[in-house]
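Before relying on records like the one below, remember that each one covers exactly one chain. Contacts with other chains, cofactors or solvent are not represented anywhere in the record.
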Amino acid sequence: MAGYTIKNLKGVDDAAQRFGLSPGLEARYARGPLECEKLGLTYFRLAPGFRVPFGHRHHEQEEVYVVVEGAARVRLDDEVRDLGKWDAVRVAPETVRAFEGGPEGAVMLAVGAPATQALGKDAELIQGWWKD
């Protein structure tokens, strides 16, 4: 096996389509396709005003989200914060989080470590968590 892997993130399967969250959300989980051993990487695209319909937290995985295009809002436990281009937010595993696309939408990258084998083993999804 080579000591590197190259993948175009837009060529990774869009999980949001499988879960009926498209076209509001695009979510490309690249940990497997990149053969990551110690971290995960995800590409997200949020449509303008689209709010992820669930919050989530982890048991082990710490995450950093970076807005690379547009703007977004994030709810972190009971606090809502605005994020702009190149803003990065680190989220501790136990903090519940969810995102909403800004007026032009947002493109974000998320990096998490340690890599976990399956979403159901490390993450807890909380449906309908962010309500105004």
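The two ends are 49 Å apart (CA to CA).
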